[in-house]
Amino acid sequence: MNSHSLKVGVVQQAVAGNDKDVNWANSAEQVSALAEQGCELVMLQELHSTLYFCQQENTDFFDLAEPIPGAATDYFAALAGKLDIVLITSLFEKRGSGLYHNTAVVFDRQQGLVGKYRKMHIPDDPGFYEKFYFTPGDLGFEPIHTSVGKLGVLVCWDQWYPEAARLMAMAGADMLFYPTAIGWDKNDTSAEQTRQHDAWQTIQRSHAVANSLPVVVANRTGFEASPVAGDPGIQFWGQSFIAGPQGEILAQASSDKEQNLIVEIDLHRTEQIKRIWPYFRDRRIDAYDDLTKRWRD
């Protein structure tokens, strides 16, 4: 780290269509606004270039995928360079014919693309048919080295798994980042919606606590209708947030509005918390072998 604090920005947006040029321009406007307010690191939400196409299984949607390098990475590399910031983006990666990933890409000032992370945990649920589109990642849980520190970048469904956060922390991540696209089924009751959101935020705050690291989450907002007749669509619940190393909420966005967040993260405090709460010292690594098994029979 170059200093004891870092001003971090999060962009929470709604997506109205699949015109990438329009969506990139909208994102760039918000990223620029955050940079003007002093943010050195900015993160966009999961799959921000298009609508969330995984509400159905449709081979035509593979046309939305981007190679790396490609038009998307060229655009956001130029933006990061122009604004002199570190920028975390997300894209539908076409790795090869018939091989696709859900990939987070990091750009570092004038250095351009400095790293990527391919989503490891791939969901397959009604309205979230991601296994049809994405091959599980093969880059492991490795922090991305940047001018502002080592970034533990994970993606959406990864946020429910303590193993992913722990492995990033064990590899030296200074912060954890989760670009996300999650929302409610419109048929859910308000009580169920509250339980789902609270579980989502709680598990990520627990990653902050268990690893003594700040956690930064960018979720999309707005309603996206399903292309399948009779399906309810998804009401993305927004509520992007930034938590400190004890899980404390430092900033949180609304559930239904486009909004930017800015937090100055005290990195020195993170170090102090690790000294006071020495979880890594007291881990019983001699007794954890069964964690690599699917189940204990």
Describe the structure.
The protein is of the alpha/beta class and 297 residues long. It has a single domain, classed as 4-Layer Sandwich (Nitrilase/N-carbamoyl-D-aminoacid amidohydrolase). The protein is 25% helix and 28% strand. Strands 5-4-3-2-1-15 form a six-stranded mixed sheet. Strands 6-7-8-10-13-14 form a six-stranded mixed sheet, covered by helices on one side. The N and C termini lie far apart (45 Å).
Distance between the termini: 45 Å
Low-confidence stretches: none
Q: What's the main sheet like? A: 6 strands, mixed
Q: Provide the CATH topology.
A: Nitrilase/N-carbamoyl-D-aminoacid amidohydrolase
Spell out the key features of this protein.
297 residues, alpha/beta, Nitrilase/N-carbamoyl-D-aminoacid amidohydrolase, 6-stranded mixed beta sheet
What is shown here, in short?
The protein has 297 residues and is α/β, with parallel strands linked by helices.
What is the topological layout?
Layout (H helix, E strand, L loop, with lengths): L4 E8 L7 H17 L4 E3 L27 H13 L2 E11 L2 E10 L4 E6 L25 E3 L2 E5 L8 H9 L4 E6 L2 E3 L4 H22 L3 E5 L1 E4 L9 E4 L3 E3 L5 E4 L6 E8 H10 L2 H4 L15
Parallel strand pairs: 1-2, 2-3, 7-8, 8-10
Antiparallel strand pairs: 1-15, 3-4, 4-5, 6-7, 9-12, 10-13, 11-12, 13-14
Helix pairs in contact: 1-2, 3-4
